[in-house]
Amino acid sequence: MNSPASMPLERYYRFHSHIYDATRWSFLFGRTTLIREISHHIRPGRILEIGCGTGKNLVSLARRFPDADITGLDLSKDMIERAAGKFSGRESRRPMLICGSYSQPLNTAPSYDLIVFSYTLSMINPGFRQAAGNARRDLAPGGMIAVVDFNDSPAGWFKSWMRVNHVRMDGHLLPVLNGWFEPVRETVITAYGGLWRYFIYLGVKKENEK
Fold first, then answer.
1. Do 80 and 99 form a contact (C-beta atoms < 8 A)?
2. Residue range 39-61: average pLDDT?
3. 43 is in which domain, residue-wise?
4. For residues 108 and 88, which has the higher predicted lDDT (pLDDT)?
5. Which residues touch 97 (CB under 8 Å, ≥6 apart)?
6. How many domains does the chain have?
7. Residue 146 covered by a domain
């Protein structure tokens, strides 16, 4: 069930679900690289993507890891329906799709080998810390979190425009991730001549964390 705080995003994606795949390629960089990097470090048996959107990453993950059980969660019913459509008629294993917010861990015990956030955490405000903490609790021992997202921008006008689109770009995510995970890869990359920066992050749960 979605919380009241998630309702603006749900309304936002009611429209954007129709144009998402046609438009997001022009600025959601690093998604293909993230999945390729994952395969260099882990062969996950159970995968969870938070904010799976229209299912682009789910398709890539299913191709890269054909034997994995994959779950996609998104707060937008419209996005979930489009994700389901990408797997219609496929003979390969279909993902489990859940409509809801990530306000608490999905399971009572750590269950997933890989949890993916693709341009999701920057849109979860103010709950990005809780979402990352839920992922830490949902990860099985030896599991990995994989994140690609906006980092920051030197242009105040651009940051203000992105806030209109529910995106926060204050360099606030990497410190949280590094507080709870041991980084395997952490790369910050400049986009559009320095207008903004995005990052690719792979990390494992710290050994002293439960």
1. yes
2. 95
3. 4-205
4. 108
5. 52, 71, 72, 73, 74, 80, 83, 84
6. 1
7. yes
Residue with token string 């019913």: 77
- Domain at 26, CATH number: 3.40.50.150
Q: What are phi and psi for residue 167, nearest 5 degrees?
A: -110, 130
Q: Where are the beta strands (DSSP E) in the chain?
A: 46-50, 69-74, 96-99, 112-118, 139-152, 181-191, 196-205
Mean of per-residue pLDDT scores for the chain? 87
Are 92 and 123 in contact, with CB atoms under 8 Å apart? no
The predicted-structure confidence for 107-131, as pLDDT tens digits, reads as follows 899 999 999 999 999 999 889 999 9
Place of tokens 């009572």: 108
Q: Does 100 fall in a domain?
A: yes
First to last CA, the chain: 27
Q: How confident is the model at residue 86 (pLDDT cuts 50, 70, 90)?
A: confident
Model pLDDT for residues 149-166, shown as the tens digit of each residue: 999 999 999 999 999 988
